[in-house]
Every structure is written in structure tokens, then in C-alpha cells.
Amino acid sequence: MITPEKFFKILKSNDITFYTGVPDSLLKDFCSYVSDNSTIGNHIINSNEGASIALASGYYLATGKPALVYMQNSGIGNAINPLLSLADPEVYSVPLMLMIGWRGEPGKEDEPQHRKQGRVLLKILEAMEIPFAVIHDSTDNIKKVVEDACKVIKKKNSTFALVISQGTFTKYKPKNPDSKKYSMSREDALRVILDNLTDNEIVVSTTGKISREVYEYREKNNQSHRNDFLTVGSMGHCSQIAMAISMNHRDREVYVLDGDGSVIMHMGSLAILGVNAPVNFKHIVINNGSHDSVGGQPTVGFKINLTSIAKSCGYITSLSAENEIQTRKKFVKIKNSKGPSFFEIKVHKGARDNLGRPTTTPIENKKELMTHLLKS
Fold this sequence. Notes:
Layout: H1 4-13, E1 19-21, H2 28-37, E2 43-45, H3 49-63, E3 67-72, H4 76-87, E4 96-101, H5 112-127, E5 132-135, H6 142-156, E6 159-164, H7 186-195, E7 202-205, H8 209-220, E8 228-230, H9 238-248, E9 254-259, H10 260-265, H11 268-276, E10 281-287, E11 290-291, E12 297-298, H12 306-312, E13 317-321, H13 324-336, E14 341-346, H14 362-375
Parallel strand pairs: 1-2, 1-3, 3-4, 4-6, 5-6, 7-8, 7-9, 9-10, 10-14, 13-14
Antiparallel strand pairs: 11-12
């Protein structure tokens, strides 16, 4: 294993001092160290991976120095276009260092949404003609691996990927952990919402801990899962899934249970939803100001006005709540409103240590929902 501090110093000694990307659970300790030790303006947690490639390219144009872009391998899809049509040696030839957390690595147990991604990751890099090196907890001479990678990107003005296996970094404790600014937890907010829905509403929940908590709450209360679609992957896209369901089942209220990181990742969807979503579309965003499922790194969720953005995008009703009393009162207004409606609930980050995962497969979830929808 390698300490985040040592890895940071190796990169710095090779003139890589600017960092951007989307957090990943396998890289959380390194990213936390970067947050605590980068100079102001030299670490930007971005909205999505493609934007990170563009930001790193702009940094090179401005400074002549390469940047490091970190991501989970699931984010490669967002990054492919700017990697091939912006940074590629045959276009603008921008030197870039990628750091990719290898979820679903073959031979290591992981969730369904990561297994395919993990299996094809190296083939995707090969198809894009991006050289790479795999780093794991027993890699010999990591310093040389990184130095050789830096030589490649500087000599060829190209991209190189460091693929990071699970357990590569030692633990790092952030210097300034966030305080609990808001009284409610995410599960508190979900309880209020789910307790006030009937068996007629459809729920589409976003990737990460929200879907896990929805599943466990249903199990705890012996409720059916047939009304729920748990979007275990495809971060940022649950609202578009829900809009299609709402457009084709206008007799059912459709509720999206979204997160701030998810909304911010593909914020352009808000404009499409606000203009096109029907009156039965209700968009609930549980905002904890963090990427809670991959380590709790901050988003800009508490620094922007999501309700004003939603209103400007065409949502008819747009409300926000900061505690349980407000949540209960305003959710009644959302339920009785004509959509598209937007409801932000501000909560503190964090989850139960014993939070489980769905015991059914994504395909089983899909079949149960579709059977219910197509019969109704």
C-alpha cells in the first residue's frame, strides 16, 4: 500500500500540482489528502468527468503544465468525447494524467453495475489508444511507475491512465470534517416522503445510498418493491428515466428521489424536464452537499440555489425545506401541485454503518416494475 502523502509528493516532484475530477470510493483517501494539501485554486471537484477533462485541458493551455483528472471507471463514458475530440494527440494534443478507480476489477467482488465496467475498462483504454499502468497494493516501485507515466505525457503531449486497484491507498483522515449543519439525515427525509405515498405512485431513485435506503425501508416495513426503480448506476440520469415513465403513465404520480451530486452532474436535464415533463412529474432532491456514497467529498450543492435554477428551467412549483416540520408541510404542497414540481430537502451527510444493499438484481427490479406498470 502507499500513503496518499507519498503519492501526492511523487506527482508534485513531476510537476503535477493541479487536480480535478469526480470522487470515487477507491480514491477517497488520496482525494481527501489533495483537498487538505493543495493550494487554493489547484483542486476543483467537478460536476462530471468530461468537464474535468476540459478543465484540465484549459489548465494546460494557460500554464503549459499537465493536470491530473481522477474518476471512477464508470465515469469513462462521460470523459470519452473530450478525451478523443479535445485532448487526443490527433486533435489538440494535450498532456493529461488520468487516475481511475477500478471498480468491478475481475476477481474482486463488486456490485452488478460495476462488474461490466470493470471487465471492459482496460479494453476501453486500449480502444482509445491511451496507455495505462495498473497500480495495486503490492506494486513495486510506484515512484518509477508514476515517473515513467509523466515522461510519456510530457514527451508525446498525450494522455496516460493510472488504473488504481482496490486497497492501493492507506487510510487518511481529513483535517476538517464537516459539521452537521442540518438536523435531518437522508433517511429521515426518505421516511417522510415514502410514508406519505400510496400504492399508486411510482418512485425512481438515484444511484448510491438513496436507492439502498429506499430498498431497506421497504423491507423494514414489509412493503412491495413493485413501484420502485432503483437506478443503481447511470449517475445523473434517474430524472430522465422518470420523465419517460411519467409521460407514458399520466394516471400515476411519478416521484424522482435524486441527490445533489446527481443533479449537478447533468444539470442540463433540468431544462429538458422543466419544459417537457408532465403534470404528474415530481422531482425530489435530497441535498447533503456531498458525494456521500463515495467518501463524502463536497459538492457545490449548498453554494447554489437549486430551487431558483429549477424555477428558471420551467418547473411550475419549486420549494425547499431544511427540517422535518418544513419537509412535512411543503411535501403536502408538492403532492397537491401540478408538475413538473421540484422539492429540495437539505440534510446532513452520513449513513448508517450497517446500511445494506438490495438483495434482488437490477433485472429482477426492472421486471417487477414493468410487470406492475404494464398491467395497470
